[in-house]
Amino acid sequence: MYTTLVIIEIIIAVLLILVILMQNSKGGGLSAGFGGGNIGTVFGVRRASDFLSQATTYLAASFIVIALVVNLFFLPGKGKTQESVIQTGKSTTLPAPEIPVQTQPQQTKP
User: Fold this and answer.
1) What is the pLDDT, as a whole number, of residue 30?
2) Nearest alpha-carbon partner for 19 in 63, 67, 76
3) Using N-to-C axis directions, what is the helix angle for 2-22 and 45-69, rounded to 10°?
4) Separation between Cα atoms, residue 67 and residue 60, nearest integer Å
5) Is the residue at 49 inside a domain?
6) For labelling alongside 74, which of 2, 26, 54, 97 has CA 20 to 30 A away?
7) What is the spatial distance between Cα 15 and Cα 61, in angstroms, rounded to a whole number?
8) pLDDT (tens digit, 9 = 90+) per residue, 23-68?
């Protein structure tokens, strides 16, 4: 179930990206590069903008809902609890570091 929801989430994310890029911005945007410039001839200019804005709303809402459902109910590893060292209260002691013994270099007589 987790894998299925993640795959659906990825598909919705890609569709959301495409729908947002298809919308007309004030400067033309990327809609002309993806064929969005001709979408007005199919639906009509007003209906195309309504369709794209509603599609954006529905895709964004479904993206958020599925993300919340996956995180609340299907997140793997949710049942495993692991306590940290601080939570257990055990004190860990490290051995004292050894100071290296330094020896004087031997001098050779000339």
Assistant:
1) 54
2) 63
3) 150
4) 11
5) yes
6) 54
7) 13
8) 776 555 555 555 555 555 555 555 666 788 888 899 999 999 999 9
Q: Which residue has the tokens 């569709």?
A: 15
Alpha-carbon gap, residue 1 to 33, rounded angstroms: 37
Which amino acid is located at 5 in the chain?
A: L
Structure tokens at 15: 């569709």
Residue with tokens 């940290």: 84
In whole angstroms, give the CA distance from residue 82 to residue 60: 35
Contact between residue 6 and residue 70 where contact means Cβ atoms under 8 Å apart: yes
Extract the tokens encoding 4. Answer: 């299925």
Phi-psi region of 44 (alpha: psi -120 to 50; beta: other; left: phi over 0): left
Domain of 55 in residue numbering reads as: 1-8+41-75
| Residue 12 structure tokens | 């919705």
